[in-house]
Amino acid sequence: MILKVKGDLMSDNCCCGNKATTLIYSCSGAANTGFLADSTARKLMKENKGKMCCLSAVGAGKSGHILSANAADKNIVIDGCNVKCGKTIFEKHKLPFEHFIVTDFGIEKGKTEITTEVIDDFTEKIAKQIG
Fold it and tell me: What tens digit of pLDDT does each residue of 59-96 get?
């Protein structure tokens, strides 16, 4: 199954808002687990659980994104696997965050087929944990 993105889900300044909020950052790696992390972050945003922001921009040290992460009420980082790129980025910049790893939820990297049902189930699990 191919999932298509309709329209632009994020503005150019995706993390820069005037309200305190929950910001969501995800792995978007090449593996199935990266796809699930990214799909979950987008679904959480669509369900108004937070605002998805660019993990790469934080990793690159872009000042606006660093400031937004520091100002957020809550930063949610969803990594696809135990390489933990997102966690490493947030620790490098000494940013506060809550961390989830897709493979900690029984999803096998390179093996588990990522279906709509898997995305829905994983999103529900994360949504319950972030409140």
Answer: 999 999 999 999 999 999 999 999 999 999 999 999 99
Q: Has this prediction a pTM greater than 0.85?
A: yes
What is the token pair recorded at 43? 């679904």
Model confidence pLDDT, tens digit, residues 12-31 = 455 655 565 999 999 999 99
The answer to whether the CB of 83 falls within 8 A of the CB of 110 is no
Residues in the chain: 131
Pairing of strands 98-101, 74-79: parallel
CB 61 within 8 A of CB 24: no
Q: For tokens 């390179």, what's the residue?
A: 110
The answer to whether the CB of 47 falls within 8 A of the CB of 99 is no
